[in-house]
Amino acid sequence: MLALRIPDTREFMKKLLTETVFDSFIVSEASVTTFTVIRIDGSWHPEYFDDEETDEDDRKEESGNAAKESALSWGRLRPVFFSIIRGRRTPGAFRLVFRLAGYNVASLLSGSGLNIRPEEVAGLFLNISFSGGEVSCTTGTSMNTFTLDQTLNHLWDELVQKFLRQQKIPFTVL
Q: What is the pTM of this model?
C-alpha cells in the first residue's frame, strides 16, 4: 500500500472531474458529502439505457476475472458525479474507490513476468479522498488466493506513480 498527497488540488480536480484521465478505471464505490452524504455502490445497470444511449464500450463486458461482470467506468459516472458537486460550495468531502479494469490487470500481469493468473487478483485499487481542501490517494491490492509475496503490491504502487507522472499530476509519498 502506498499513500500519496496531491499538492495541487485545483489542477487534480480539473483532471479528475472534467478530463478523461481516469475514465478507464472501474468505480467500486463513491461517496460525496454536500448537504447530505450521497453513496454510490458502483454497480452498473445497462438495461436502464436504450440501445441508442449506450456505446460499444458500455456493451463490452469486462474480462480478466473468472466471472464476467458488468462494471461502471469512471468515464460513465464522471459527468453525474460532477453535476452532484458542481455549485457555489465545495463539497465537504468525497471518496472514490477505483479498480483497474480486468483487461488491464491481465495486460499488467502478462507483461510483468509474475506467476499470477488474472483470476487470482480480486482487484488493484486506487482510493482518492478529498477532505479539508486536500487530496490524497492510496493504493491497494486484493487477492482471491492467499500469498505472502508482495511483488504485485509493489508493481501496482510503481504503476500508479508512473501513471500520475505521465498525466503530469504532482504528488508526494507520505
A: 0.87
**Alpha-carbon Rg of the chain, whole angstroms?**
17
Round to whole Å and give the CA distance between 107 and 121.
12
**Number of domains into which the chain is organized:** 1
pLDDT in tens, 127-162: 999 999 999 999 999 999 888 889 999 999 999 999
The amino acid present at 33, given as its one-letter code, is: T
Rounded distance between C-alpha atoms, residue 139 and residue 147, angstroms: 18
User: What is the C-alpha separation between 81 and 94, in angstroms, rounded?
Assistant: 10
Residue-wise pLDDT for 3-36, tens only, equals: 999 999 999 999 999 999 999 999 999 999 999 9
User: In 3D, which of 70, 62, 65 has the Cα closest to residue 45?
Assistant: 70
Structural domain span for residue 50: 3-173
Query: SS3 helix, strand, coil % of the chain, rounded to 5?
Result: 35, 30, 35
